[in-house]
Amino acid sequence: MLPSRIFFDNFFDDLDSPKKQNSMMKCDIYETESEYHIEMDTPGFKKEDIKMELSNGYLTISAEKQSKSDDEDKKYIRRERVYAKEMRQFYVGDIDEEKVKAEFKDGMLLVSVPKESKEKESKKIINID
To answer: What is the average pLDDT across 23-49?
Structure first.
C-alpha cells in the first residue's frame, strides 16, 4: 500500500497550481497587438457575484455566492450548492485601471487589459553652461 499523498505535499502547493486545475474559473489568455484578453468561465455565478480589483500590478478576479435558505419545506439529504467562492489572480503590471474593460456574457467573463505602453526613448540635448 502506498503512503497517503499528504506526506508528499509541498509547502508551495498553491504556487504549483494543482488547486487551479480544480478551479471552476478556468480561463484562456491571449494577446493582440495592444491588449491581453482573458476569457474566464464563471459557471453558476451571476454578474453581481463577481468582483475585480487591480492593486500593485495584480488583477484579482473573485466570485462568491451564497444560496438563500428560502426552501425550508425541503428536507435535504445532501446539499453541496450552498456556498461557493473562487478567486484567480494575474500579474498585469502597472497599468491605468480606467483602461481595463470587462464584460459578462453567458456565464463567461471577458476582460481586456491594455499592454503597458513603452515610451519611445527620447533624446534630450543638455546645454552646458
So the answer is: 91
